[in-house]
Amino acid sequence: KRRGHPPPPPIVRMQKPASDLMSKVDKLANLPNTANDTSYDNNALKDATEGVVQAASAMKISALDPGQWLEDFRLAMFRTNFEGLGAMEIVDFTEVLDQDLMGMAMPLLQFRRFRKYAADIPPAGGHSYRLDLYAADIAGKAAPGAQCHAWLGCLRLSHFEQKFTSIGVRDLRDFREVREDDLVAMGMPMLQRRRFLMSAAVALPNLPDSAESALATVQSNSAICSTPPQWLETLHLTNWIPAFDALGCLDVVDMREVLRADLEEMELPLLQTRRFLAAVAIIPDPPELPGRRWETPSKWLDSLRLKRYDVYLTKLGVDRVVDFAEVLDLDLMEMGMSPLQRRRFRAAVAVDAQPTLESDAVTGAMKQGAAEEEFAKTAVAALRGEDVLNLTPARWLALIRCENFVLEFEELGVEAVLDFPEVTEDDLNAMGLPTLHKRRFTVAAVQVEELHLFHKEREVANSGEPESTFEWLKVLRLGFFIDAFQRLGVEEIDDFAEVLMDDIVDMGMKPLHRRRFQMAVAELLQ
């Protein structure tokens, strides 16, 4: 009073459990009129009256605003500290620890005063037993879909329900895997974090008592699973089975190849991601098969668990392991290879087929045409250092790994390496050249054409000015048909313009020769 402050309001401590209050209130309400009855025992009236006073006092305290409560007891200067600690309701003051008060540098007198009056605050919900047990009991009685909501409501944490859902909490057992740093990340103050962690340990019986032990249990349970669906069900990831199937997880060991980016793409929440990674960590490595580079393509694919694509890749033109370096992502997608399998395929190619391409071409980031050209250039690198002009067609085809089609090219009329640039796409399709072989051949033929461009220009430029028909045919590499043309009646160079298609077919000229002859005749006519 000397300092000008009003005296603190009187606080009546609850001497008896709140569970007895209602019975005493009922007892008081049913008492008879004892004003003139001297034989009635007034002890019952006294006890009931005390209970009503206690209940009224508790209700009055519980209804107070935390800020008003602090101001009444001259602790308003610590209001910001308590708010930062998470004291949003009057009952939260009962959870404040001594170290919290010392952390906000509260002097001794205020410390004592806070402890004295905080002891008079009734427990949450009016119950006198432990909050964690009370929350577990209420949640256990709730419907299966409402247990999390009921449990958080008992802990006065309902405003964090959406954030718990976003990190992957789907049922009570998921609360066991929530760590304190997760609570900090969602902005939960200290008091609420302490309340959550204390209560999560008893959310359900017969469960691990910490996030670490919960993950260890998940690991041990998943270790005995033999199929991906069973493995995912053990991890409570049943809802994501279709996503992992689409990714290409056909065996449990495939889970080792799933990246965090894959999990983010399928929107796997934080808790489920942590659970998945913990279980993946104990999956044993697949057996290593040394020397795969020298195996057949079929065995190479089998070692990568990709044997099912053997037929498709054989049709594509893969004859040996080194050919896998020329297969594009577009080829893999067309044969239905999943992302996880394509990633595994590319990783093995980088080791066994030794591609020299940049990573963006390997991953399909390049445009299709540029990627095809780069792969084919890698495939025909063996031509470097060779005297291409003097190679036989068979040797040239062997260097670009197309030796199985020597006869087809001979039937087409290829007699020298210079003839290969004249082979068209239709010719390659007609002789059944697979896709990889066609890419390889096309790039190699372009290199040949560029190398001999000057010679070809000279041939075309001089084809109309030779001294004799024999020289004209020799320039066109058709000298062995001189006798046939002489029998046909060709005496001068201008006579070639009168030769018909049927004439050159009858003399046994092959398609490539006919094409070359007609091009030279067109030059004559011009």
Automatic annotation (TrEMBL):
<dbReference type="InterPro" id="IPR013761">
    <property type="entry name" value="SAM/pointed_sf"/>
</dbReference>
<dbReference type="InterPro" id="IPR033635">
    <property type="entry name" value="ANKS1/Caskin"/>
</dbReference>
<protein>
    <recommendedName>
        <fullName>SAM domain-containing protein</fullName>
    </recommendedName>
</protein>
<feature type="domain" description="SAM">
    <location>
        <begin position="466"/>
        <end position="524"/>
    </location>
</feature>
<keyword id="KW-0677">Repeat</keyword>
<keyword id="KW-0040">ANK repeat</keyword>
<dbReference type="InterPro" id="IPR001660">
    <property type="entry name" value="SAM"/>
</dbReference>
<dbReference type="Pfam" id="PF00536">
    <property type="entry name" value="SAM_1"/>
</dbReference>
